Amino acid sequence: MTGLGSTAIGPGRTAADGGLDLEQGTSPVDVLATRLARSELLRQVPGVAHGVTGRVPSMGTAEGNVGYSPPRDAADAWGMRRRWCQAAGLNADLLATVGQVHGVEVLQADGKDAGRGARPGSGRVGLGDALITDQPGVVLMTLHADCLPVLLVDPDRPAVAAVHAGWRGTVAGIVGRAVRAMTDAFGSHPGRLVAFMGPGIGPCCYEVGPEVVGAWMERGEVAGTDARWAIRATTTGATFDLKRANTLLLREAGVVEEHIDVHPDCTRCQGNHWFSHRGQGADTGRFGAMISITASGTSRGIS
Fold this sequence. Notes:
By secondary structure, the protein is of the alpha+beta class. It has helices at residues 28-35, 40-43, 74-88, 167-172, 174-186, 210-217, 242-252, 277-280, and strands at residues 48-52, 95-96, 106-108, 130-133, 139-144, 148-154, 159-165, 194-197, 207-208, 221-222, 225-226, 231-233, 238-240, 260-262, 287-293.
């Protein structure tokens, strides 16, 4: 899988170039294209485009933030959505989002939902923490600042999903719900699905209370593995490994482990590249996980 690019970002430039110290002939969109996190597994699927935006110092007024909720500047965030989408080969006007509630609701986006949640004030598809679609053009997006983004692709239909998995959604099995929703709606075979877990807070930084540990441990075994595999004891309590937990849950739902791609970054440790609620506070920005079917009737590559 691939992580962040290495294009240098420097201080001192403002306004039209978004504050970036650009080399001659390099546009802000060119820079953002190197900063998108992408999965090599997902890139093998033709007719599907995806990317996870990040935090880019001096980009816009809020370092590349794409979230609209206060105190963020919605106009700047819309401009950033347009730039990030352009860098990913997506159409920002066709973004579809949900009001995320740390639950397990999975919503299906149809063609009429394209644009719901794109611009400020354009509404949203509904309240939930996962979106699925088999409609070309619709760009699914979830927002994150430590919670784990999970993108799913059915290369056969094709169909895609975007999932927001914090500890509550993880414990409640949001990724498994998304897999089942794709099976029910599109006839997707779990063993054919491809998954990408983007950057999220790591077990190095995600200390949790006994209520989280207890809720997760109630599962006993997940995909034949002791649930303790996702818990690390510390001198002050315990940490929760969202990526391990969701890997187990995807496997339990029937996704083949070889089809699961995991980004290594911890959003708090690498806070210069990612927005982190725990690292930067509640008023920090949000990065977006985006995925879209760009062409219909294509399939190959994943076995």
